[in-house]
Every structure is written in structure tokens, then in C-alpha cells.
Prior knowledge:
With about 650 residues, the chain is α+β, with helices and mostly antiparallel strands. It has one domain (about 155-625): Glycosyltransferase. It is built from 22 helices and 20 strands. The radius of gyration is 28 Å and the shape is globular. The model is unreliable at about 1-20, about 40-130, about 135-150 and about 630-638 (pLDDT under 50).
Amino acid sequence: MRCVDKPPLPGVSASGMGLRLSQKFVFLLFLSGLVTLCFGALFFLPDSVRLKRIFLSKTETQPVTVGSGSENDAREHLKRPKDQEHPRGMTSAKGETSTKLKSLSRKPPVSHEATEERLAGGKAQEDLTLSRSKTESASERATSPDHGANSDTFSYKKFKRCLLKHPLGRDNGKPSDPKTNERREKVKEMMKFAWDNYKRYAWGKNELRPLTRNGHIGNMFGESSVIDSLDTLYIMGLMEEYNDAKEWVQTSLDLNSNGEASLFEVNIRYVGGLLSAYYLTGEELFKNKAVELGEKLLPAFNTPTGIPRGVINLGSGTSWSWGWASAGSSILAEFGTLHLEFVHLTELSSNPIYTEKVMNIRKLLNKIEKPHGLYPNFLSPVSGNWVQHHVSIGGLGDSFYEYLIKSYLMSDKTDDDAKKMYYSALEAIEANLVQKSPGGLTYMAEWRGGILDHKMGHLACFSGGMIGIGADDGAPEKRQHYLDLAAEITHTCHESYARSATKLGPEAFRFDGGAEATATRLSDRYYILRPEVIESYMYMWRLTHDPKYREWGWEAVEALEEHCRVESGFSGIRDVYTMTVSHDNMQQSFFLSETLKYLYLLFSDDDLLPLEDWVFNTEAHPLPIILLSQSSQPFRLE
């Protein structure tokens, strides 16, 4: 006996459940109409895109050619969705207070829920953030130029949730030790003094001439102290000054200059500074300006190899090599210092062309032969071959190596090609360039076609911090070695300061003819407010908490105050070995962007711009670590 749960449909016999022919025809007609209606709604209703993605698992994309390209490539590439998210396993190096260097320790991954709970708990910090980060009004957003940026793709709120810690720390990084906090406040006062004089006498110009109280314009676009100072002012809580700078960007920043522009300077200072300001504040103005400027840099890549030329006219798009560069070559430290900013331009614009341009550079560098594993400083953008076999970790080469390890860290440690290139280069550097003086000082010599020049430039002193932040990701048996090497190089650079009369370091110092860590040539004795030594102090403090790094930093503050501070700003000096100083009448923009920022961070707690979340570009502009799930481009060579 069979149970029937429901009564039979009209016209259907209970015994056979059959349908007459006419009823079948009507039923099929009704069913086909229903199917047509559903699929019509799916494909023709205005909001059907999301439904289509459910049913259409594969989409056709236009093939992308990686090469020299054209300036119209940016508009032709399809935008790729980034609609997945996962917790980041990135952790940061942090040691404990000790006078001995320790292996770097990594914190375990923190869930988004825990992060949000921690941020919500710090109400005082949230209030401070609200007072700083006044986002644009709806009308401002509506009138901001889009220039290819897709605001629907990148979510600033989502980005903030992905951070492991608040960018400004629980209490703006204020140290609990009163003495350290007093020193930090002194650095803040130095920044305000430098900025106020720049605004008073050189507003909108590249740099301040403090002795003559006027602005330095120069003939190159891309060195404005306003852009370089945005994030420094913000993290120091100088909000009135920050808002003045923001207003200048909104009303006076001209990106249609027809003058010469250094690709390198525009990228690290303008693009990097605007990106940093956007990520810290959420101001759409900065993001739009950064993407607009990034698009104007693309024509520089129109070469047979895709290696960009060093100079570009932002108005016409014409590019050329530096007149002083050997045989029209491009400079390693310039075309090799684009990766961090260009990857972020792809993140914000959803346009893969920026990442493709820098990945093409990396692909070419991997293909060509490297003498003794080293990267010479000059490369032809036409042939793709090295022009000279001059290798330096200082000027002309420096930031290329910096961007390899930082690209790996910024990719949430997924960019294995950058990691491999960095550690291979570091191995070659150790084998060929790292030297020990008779007095026991470790230094980086320069290499000229197989002949060592026992000179180390101030610019090369960044390498202590670079090797330090990369120590924990090297081979396990080499991690302590790398950290020790970083400490030794930083010590040598400190000695170049300690052995001068002013306690400031020369532009270059030598290790030959009986000299150690001192400048032997008059042309190398000047100091132009450079940050590299202090940069390494900051990183080594974060990695080890050895108090000597803060003491060394304070020595630099006292020397800057005594010898470089003048009535209307700060000035470089022409000879660090004489107490009767002669000033060069220039307050460099990197003094505001790098030197004072690194000093402020040195005397702050580690949760102010924590290394778990941020990587600093070569101009000290902090850029956030990118989650692989958010990235629209893989970090692996084809």
C-alpha cells in the first residue's frame, strides 16, 4: 500500500499520474516560457553582473604583452578583480632590550577579529586618528579627477582591517621612558622649525635656502619639500602644517610640467610620498594624484628593452638618458628603484601595467650575465647589456639592492624571485666587496672592473639597515651572521661620524693610505643632512633594542643642532673636520622626509609604523605590506 502525501494535480489521474497530450503541450510551453524569463533576467537586467559571475566561471581576457609598450597601454589593459581576502601571516622583527644582537623573532599571525578588537579597545588612539584623518567630503570626492583609478576595486576600509596594528600605535608611539620621550619631542621641534621656515621663505619651491631666506627651484621637477614632508608631519601630529601641505597638493601641484623630470626622483618622492599619505590618511586626493602621475611616467619605458630612460618630460612624454651617463645608459639605482611604488599603483588602479613594467625589468636582469654575480651600475636601455663594470652599494647602485629585499617583504613574503635575487646578490657582495680594515672595521668597497676601490660612501651606510631587515629570512645558518654583519657596517658608519670634529659624517670615507673611516679628499668632506646612517640606527634599534643605537642617534641630533641649525632652517656644511663650519645654504627635502623621520621613529615605540605592516621606500615613505589575496598580479617571473 502506497501513501500519497499530496493530492494529485488537476487533470492528473491518481492511479497513473499521467497527462493528456494537450495538457503536456501546455505544461511544456509554460516551462519553456519560465526558463526564457529567468535567463533573460540574468543577462539583460542592469544588476546582472554578479549573477553572471556565478554561472560563468571563466572570463576571456585580452592577452597582455610585457615589453616596452606604449603610453596607451595603461588604458587598454583589463582591470582584474581582487575580491578575496585572507589573514596575513607576515610578522616582524623585534628584539628585546639588550646590548647583544639577537636573532630576529617573528610574531604569530593575528586574526582580523583580534586586530579589530585591539584597535577598538584603544579608544584614545581612535580619537586621535579621527582628529588627524579628516576624509574628503562627498563633494570633494565627486570633483576629484579619476585618471584611471577604480575606486570600486580598492577598499580603504578593507585595507585598514588587514593591518595587524594601528599605523600610529596605541599612543602615537610615545615611549614610556621620559628621557626618550623628551628626545623625541626635540626631533619634532626640529621638524616644525625646518617646516615653518620652508613655508615662510620657500613655499612651493623644491627646497629652502636658509641663509639667503629664499627658495631653490632648480631645473628638475620632482623635489618638492611639500610632498616629501606630508607623512612626516602627519605621524608627528603636526596637523596644522599637514593640512597646509594637503591644501597645496590640492590647489597648486602641477603634474603637467613641460620641464625635465628625473624618473627616479619623481617616483620615490612624489609617487611614494603621495601613496604614503593616502595609506596613512585615506585622502582620495593623494591616491588620485599618485595614479595620475604614475601614468605620466609610463612613456619612459618605451625602449627596445623596456628598461626606462632616466629623464622624462611629463607634458610631452618624451624621455632620454642622462647626458653624463656612459653611452646613453640607464642607472641601476634608478630603474631598479621603481618596484615598490609601481606595485602599489597597480593595487590602487587595478591596472596591471605598472607591475608588468617592473617585472619586465626584473626578467631582463635575470637573463643577462652578471660579472661575479654582481650588478654593474650602467645598463643600455637599447641593447640590454652592461655598459661599464663599475659596482657600488653606494651611489648609482644602492637602492636597487634595497628594493629587492623590500619587494619580498612588501609582498607578504611571497615574491620568491626578489628573495632569490637579493640573497644571491648579497652573497656576491660579501665575496667581492665586503672588506675588513686593519683596525677591524667592516666596510663595503667599490668594484671597478675587478679592481677594488677602498672607499665607502655615506649613501652606502643604508646597507646596515638593509642587511638587518633581511637577516631573519636568510638561510637558517646565516641569520645571525647577517645580523652581525649589519651591526658591523652600522658601527663603521658611526665611526665615520665619531672621527670627525663635528660628529657628522663625510660624503665618503676611505680605508687606504693609513686612513680608516675618514675622508682623505677635500671633495668628500661635506655633509648635506643625509639620512643613511640614522636610517641604519633606526632599523638596528627595532631589530635588537640595543640602547647604543638610540645614543648614537642622539649624538647626531646634538651635532645637527650645533653645526647645521641656522637662524632660518637647517643647512649642510662643507667640511665636517673643522669646527668653524661653512654652510652650503641648502635645506634638502630628504632632511624632512628621511633624516628627521628616522630620528623620530628611533625615539618612538616600535608600534609607530610597525615593521609588521609597513615597508619604507628609499625616501622613507612608508608603504603597506600587500596581501597576496589582494594583489592582482603574481610576484613570479614567467
